[in-house]
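Slack export, channel: ligand-projects

TW: morning all. Re-posting the request from yesterday since it got buried. We need the structure predicted with the small molecule present, not the apo form. The ligand is pyridoxal-5'-phosphate; the SMILES is in the block with the sequence. No rush, but it would help planning for next week.
GE: picking it up
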Amino acid sequence: MLFHSTRGKDKDRDFSSILMQGLADDGGLFMPNYWPQVDLNEIKSKQSFVEVAKCIVPLFTSSSFSHQETLNILESTWHDFEHKDLVGIKNLNHVSVLELFHGPTAAFKDFGLQLAAAFFNKVLESEDKTAIVLGATSGDTGSAAIDACKNYNRIKSFIMLPNGNMSEVQQRQMSTIKSPNVYALRINGTFDDCQDLVKLAFKERDFLNKNQYLLAVNSINWTRIIGQICYYFYAYNQLHEKGKLSFSIPTGNFGNVFACYSAHKMGLPINKISVAVNNNDILHRFFQKNDYSKQSVHETISPSMDISVASNFERLIYDLFLDRNASVCAEMFDNFPTSPIDLNMSTWKKKEDLFSSSKVNDTDTTGMIEEVHRSNGYLLDPHTAVAAVEAFKLSDKKNHYVLLSTAHPAKFPKVYEELNIEIKSSPVALKDLFKKDEHLHTFDADYKKITNFIKLNN
Ligand SMILES: *Cc1c(COP(=O)(O)O)cnc(C)c1O
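GE: finished. pasting the full C-alpha cell output, ligand included:
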C-alpha cells in the first residue's frame, strides 16, 4: 500500500515516510492509494481487540514493514489500559456505548497516538536516528502524545500549552509526567499562539540536530487514523448480531469520523454516521446547508471539540465528494479559509446515504448527562453526552446506534460539581494527579527563547 496527498503533488509514498512527515509538502493530507478490503467473517471470529487490529493495521504498513514485523509491534503497542480488552462496551437501553477511555490518559486519543509512537520508534531504531516531537495542545492530544512517547528514548517531546486555558486535570496530566525526555512548555498566550509557534518551527527547523526528525502528532497523521479504524471493526466483532450498526461520534477535527468512514470503505456495513458537534458547528452547517466557512471559536464544556475548522475534513471532501480529484481539491483548500468550501448541490448531496449531523449546546449536554445518570446510573463525559442526544433519539431495534465515548468524566470534574453529581470511580491514571509535583517551563510566545530551550535540552 502506497499513499498520496489530497492535493496531488506528493505521490506513491511508503508508509514510513508519511508516518514521519505528517502533512504532505503540498499542504494536503495523506491518503491510501486505494481502500483495502477486510474479510468480515474473519473479524467476527477474532477473540480480542488486538486480534482485530491485526487484520487491519498490516493492510497499511506493508510498504515498510513485513506482515510479521507489524504483528509483533501490535502485540506490545497498546499499554497501560485499565480494561482487559482495551475497549469497554456498555448497553444502555437500546444504545451501545463504546468506551474508549480506558487508556493511560483517559481519552480515545491513546489508541492512535500509542500506535503512531510505536511505529515512530521502529523507524528511528532501524535508521539509527532520533526525533523531536513538537505539538500544541488545548486538550487531550498533548497528554496522549507525551504518554505515548515517554518510554522511547530516541524521542524527546516538547508540548506547548496555553497558560490558563484548559482544565486543570488536563494540564496536570502533562505537567506531572516525570521522564527525562518530556517537556511541558506553558506559553503565555492563546492556543492559536502555540499553534503559530509550532508552524514556524516546522518551517525553520533550526533547532534540530543533523539527521534528526521533527515529528507531528496532530490528528492529521494517518497512523492515528489507522489506530482508530480498528475499534470500529471491534464494535462489529462485538455487536454484529444487532444488525447493521450506526455510529454517533462527538466530533472536533473529524479524525474519529474519518476513521469510521474509512472502516466503511474497507467493508464495514454501516447504516448512518452521525456527526455530533457542540456550539462550534462548522461541520453541522456543512451537513445541514452546505456551508463550510470558518467562524471564531466558542468555549464550551466539551473543550476538545472547540475548533473553528476540522483539519481532517479535507480527506472526506477529496474521497467522497470529489471522487479523488486532487486538482479540484487543491484549488479548494489552497484558498480556504479565505474562500469557504463551495460544492454544487448534486455533489453536496452525496453525503445523504451515510451522514447525518447534530449540534448540541451546553445546556442540552448537561441535560443529557443528568438524564442518563438518573435513568441508567451511568455517567457520560461532556463530549460523549453531545453525541448521546442523537444516539438515544434515533436508536431502535432496526437501527442500532453505537455511541463513541471519547473521554472519562473524571477529566472534567467542574461539570459534575455544578450538577451535584459525584464521580464515583476515577481511572488510576487520574487518581494521584493533584498530589504530584508539576514540571512546567513557562515562556512568552517567543520563538527564539523557546527553540533555544529545545536546543539546550536536545
Ligand atoms: C479529540 C477529542 C474529540 C474530537 O475528536 P476528533 O477526532 O478531533 O473529531 C472528542 N472528544 C474528546 C474527549 C477528544 O479528546
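GE: first-pass observations. The mean pLDDT is 95. Residues 109-127 form the longest helix (19 residues).
TW: perfect, thank you
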